[in-house]
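Dear colleagues,

As part of the handover before I leave the project, I'm documenting each prediction I ran so the next person doesn't have to rerun anything. This entry is a single chain, and its sequence is reproduced below.
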Amino acid sequence: MSVTMFNLASLFETAPPPAPVPVPLGEPVSTVRSISMVSSSRATTRIGVWECTPGRWVRQVRQAEFCHFLSGRAIFTPEEGEPVIFGAGDVAHFPENSRGVWEIVETSRKIFMLLDEERDS
């Protein structure tokens, strides 16, 4: 068995500089700063730290995601469903191909795990 452990502050210090989100919706354009590492034998399973500044944009992650918000305030509005408000301490799971719009109200930081969920046949 192998345990993946990382120090949040140390890992985030090595993140690249902030960059504009790929699909912004209006002004201000959010910038995102993120770093992740492979956490299993599957290269698509990653853990990491993410930070984003205020703005609205289209969610681009197609994998399932488990995350824990450490700071900030954000609203996710799925294509189908009601808006969900996130703040420090909130934990969420997004199924594969969750589509919608993020509105970052206050600069937000979270830890996350991206994974491919296998379906039972």
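The two ends are 28 Å apart (CA to CA). The chain is about 5% helix and 50% strand.

All the best with the project,
I.
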